[in-house]
Amino acid sequence: MLKESQAQIMLELQANMNARVNPQWVEAAYPYLRAVVVEGAEAIEHHGWKWWKKQECDLEQLQMELVDIWHFTLSHLLLEHSGDQEKSRAALLTLMAENNTLHFDNNTISINELDTLQKLELCIGLAAAGRISVVLFEALLADCKMDWNDLFCQYVGKNVLNFFRQDHGYKEGTYTKTWHGREDNEHLVEVMSDLDSEHEDFKHLLYESLKDRYQGST
Question: Are the beta carbons of 11 and 85 closer than 8 angstroms?
């Protein structure tokens, strides 16, 4: 179960990140659920779906895609409540209490009966229709061997990476996403495995580790 304190922290971090990209992000009303559609498709790629060739599931990257989906889900929630973090937190906790049955496209769908790819497809379909399901997302976490505490830790890590990107020219187009032949997401996974997520300076240490690697690649 997601703790209220964790929900509050993540919503605050997400609001700060959105403001870093654009101080008027609420007025801009970006289509955050469109980003969920794209991230969901990328998650399917990392899972593997091609029946005509051998594929291996890249679990770490699949987990990272779920973290990305969560970023945009939180942004959508915040936008629905005009950036009010307290109202967004209350809405999030209400959504978590829903049952495991969804009504979509004139069908009644039991989330528990879906495999991982079907859940990802449903997540994409809901997002394309302007909807979210936190219960569906929680089921995806379980499929990908994560719980809410795991998500919280990885979310904080990705939040640091997003700030790092912005600080190094992501919005201006001068940021290089691939270092030493690997995407920055992959470097993030590796760096996080070497750090103690419970350390009080975890965010700072993570940022500096990413900075060292990035500067060493340029």
Answer: yes
Beta pairing, strands 107-110 & 182-183 = unpaired
Is the pLDDT at 117 greater than 90? The verdict is yes
Q: Which residues pair with 183 in a beta bridge?
A: 178
Query: 59-89, pLDDT tens digit by residue?
Result: 989 998 999 999 999 999 999 999 999 999 9
Q: Number of helices and strands (H, E) in the chain? A: 10, 4
C-beta of residue 142 within 8 angstroms of C-beta of residue 133:
no
What is the C-alpha separation between 106 and 150, in angstroms, rounded?
Answer: 34
How confident is the model over 4-30, as pLDDT tens digits? 988 998 999 899 999 988 999 999 999
pLDDT of 218 over the 70 cut: no
Please state, in angstroms and rounded to a whole number, the distance separating the CA atoms of residues 192 and 202. Answer: 9
pLDDT, tens only, 119-148: 999 999 999 999 999 999 999 999 999 999
The superfamily CATH assigns to domain 4-147 is Type II deoxyuridine triphosphatase (1.10.4010.10)
Q: Which amino acid is at 41?
A: A
Token pair in block for residue 96:
């978590």
Alpha-carbon distance 206 to 188, whole Å?
8
Distance of CA 183 to the CA centre of its chain: 16
With tokens 């419970």, the residue in question is: 198
Pick the closest to residue 190 from 141, 148, 157, 156 (CA basis): 157
